Amino acid sequence: MTVSGKVWRVLERRNMELGPKGEPARTLTHWRYTKDGEGIVWLIFDRAGQSTNTLSEEVLVELNLVLEDLKGLNAKGLVIRSAKKSGFAAGADIRDFRGVTNASEIESRLARGHELLDRLANLSIPTVAVIHGHCLGGGLELALACRHRIAVSGASLGFPEVLLGLHPGLGGTFRLTSLIDPVEAMTMMLTGRPVHARKAKALGLVDEVVEERHVANAVRAAVAGKLKPARPGLKAGVMSLAPARRMAANRMRAEAQKNAPEKHYPAPYRLIGLWEEHGGDPKAMQRAEIRSFSELLTGPTAQNLVRVFFLRERLKSLAKGESGISRVHVIGAGTMGGDIAAWCAARGLRVTLTDLDPQAIARAIGRASSFYDKRLHSSLERRDALDRLTPDFEGVGVRQADLVIEAVAEKEGVKRRVYEEIAPRMKPGAILATNTSSIPLESLREGLLFAERFVGLHFFNPVTRMQLVEIVTHDAVSEETLSRARAFCGDISRLPAPVRSAPGFLVNRALTPYLVEAFLMFDEGVPKEVIDRAARDFGMPMGPMELADRVGLDICLEVARMLKERLPDPMPEVPDWLVQKVEAGETGRKAGRGLYVYDENGKPKREEVKIAEGAQVPRDSETADRLVLPMLNTLVRCLREGVVEEEEVADAAMIFGTGFAPFRGGPLHYARERGVDEITAKLHALAQKYGDRFAPDEGWERLKT
After folding, report:
1. Is the peptide bond before 541 cis (omega within 30 degrees of 0)?
2. Domain-by-domain residue ranges, the chain?
3. pTM for the structure as a whole
4. Where is the 3-hydroxyacyl-CoA dehydrogenase NAD binding domain (predicted)?
5. pLDDT digits (tens, 9 = 90+) for 386-398
C-alpha cells in the first residue's frame, strides 16, 4: 500500500461520522448500532455484500428488530446513517419483486413495510436521518419516516420510481406531499429528477445542510430540539382543498401527456389521481398508495421497465474493473469530439482537446462551459471541470494521454492519416480509440503498429445525454484493451455494449433501415408529421424524420451508402431529395434546416398536416410496422452473424443508444411478446407489398426456441 493509501486508511473514520468508536452494541447482517455517551443510538445501515444500500425484505425485518431493542436502551434519540461511501440508500431492492405477478402478495409485503415505517415515524424520541450521496426511492421514504433529515453537502434526494413505471410505494406519496409544498412534491415524483442538498433545504425536505465534519454537532442539535423542521407553508393549506387539487391535477396531466402518454405510461396518472382524490387525508392516501403500487407493478409497463432496469445493470456489470485511464486526448472538436471531451472532464478526467481549426476548439470549450453551468451544481465543480479541459492547439497532449479518442470526419482516409501522425507520439501502453459510427475497424487498423491497443468507442449524440457506448472489437485487439475500454465507460458513467466490428456495428446498422424506410414513405407522399406521429404513438421518444435531423442528414446519407455498399442486406436506393438536401447544406438541426426548419432554440417548427382529398395515407399501425419491423429484422440478423452475442445486450443497446420505446422492454423482447410467428408473417406480407427488404431473416427460427 502506498503512503497516501495508509494515510487515507488512518483518516477514513474522520471522513464519515458513524458514531462512537469501539465495538457496536449489536451487529446484525445489514445493521449495527451503538449508543454514545449522550444516550443517542447511532444505527448504521451497511448492506452485506453490496456496494450500495437497498431496502430488501431482510433489511426491513432487521430494522424491526432494532426498533424492538430501542425499548430497553433508554435512548435519548436515534440516528440512521449509511456506512456506504456511495450514499444513504438507492431505494427498494427491486429484485425482491422480480417475477411476482400476484398483486395481493405485493400488497401484503408493502403493508408490512408501511407498518414498520409508521412505527419508526411514531417513536417518541427524536429520530434523525443523516444523508450523504444518493438518497432515492425507498431510501428517501425511510428518511421521511424520521423526524429530522440532515444532508451532507453534495447529497442528492429523489423519487425515480416513475422511471420504473411506478410511483413511491413505502409512504412517499403522502409523507412528501405533507412535508413540503405539495406541487413541488408532485413534481419531484412525476419527473423522477433528484434535487441536490441546497434545493432540498429550500424546499423543506431537509432541515439542515452541513459539511461532514459538522455532522455530530448537527445530530446533537436535532436531538436537543434546537433544529427546527421546515413547515409546508401557505400553499399546502390551499392544496388541502379538493377544488384546488383538481385544478392543479388537470395541469399536471396535461404536462405529463407531452412526454408520457397514459396508454404507455400509466404511473404518472395514477399518482396524480391518488393525490387529487386523497391529498387531504394521509391515511386514505396511504391505503390507496399500497393498492395502486401493487397493481402497477404487476402491469406490463412496470414489468418491462423493470426489465430495462436489469438490462442497465447488465451493462454496468461489464464496466467493472480498473481502466488505468486518467488522461484523455480527444482529436476533433466538432459536436461529437467536443462533447466527449467535455463529458470526460466533467467526470473527473484530465482532457486535452485538439483540432486543425482553432475556432472549432473555441466553440467546443464554449459549449462545455454552457453544459457545466446547467448540469454541475456548484461554482467549484464548474471551475474544476473547466480546469481539467485544456484547449490543445498544438496537439501535445497526445504524449501524456492514457487514452486517445479520434473523432474526426467519418472518412476512412482522413482517420488513417490521423493515426499515421499521432501513433509514433503516443506513450507505451496507451489506447487508441476511434469514435467511428460505422467504418469497420479492420479497415482503419491497417498500418498500425499496435493493433492490439486499437478499439472502437462509439458514443451517441448527444453525448451528454445518451448513455450507451459501443465497445467495438476486432480480431487483433487484446482482451486487456477491451477490459480497460469497458472500465473507462464505468469511469465516466456510461454503459458499454460489446459489439463486433462490422459495417454500422449494431445500433446504426439496425437504425438505418428504420430511417431509410421513413425516407421512402416521405418519397411516396406521406407527410413527415404523419410518419413521426406513428413512431411516437408506438412509443419512440421522437419520430424518425426528426431523429434523422438530430443525427444529421449528411451522416445518415454517408452511413446508408456505406451499408448498402458493404453489406448483403437488401437496402433500397437513397432518395434523390436526400442527396440534394445534403449538397445544399440542409443537414438537419445543426444547420437550422433539414427535413424540418428549426427555431433559435433548436426546436422543429411543425406544421398542421392537411391531407389532400383522395390521398392514400397508410394507417398509423402499418406505418409503425414499416418502420419498426426492419429494425427488428436487422437485429435478428446481427445476432445470427455474431455482431452481438446476447439478446439482452442488443435490447439494451437499442434502448440506451436510440431511445427505443422503453416501456416495451427492448425490441427483441417486444418481438417475443408480440409473437415471433406474427412478426414473421407480417414481414412476409410487407415483403409482398413493398419488396425483398422486408423478407424475414433466417435468424428468426432461433428466437422460436
Report:
1. no
2. 3-298, 324-493, 508-703
3. 0.90
4. 328-499
5. 999 999 999 999 9
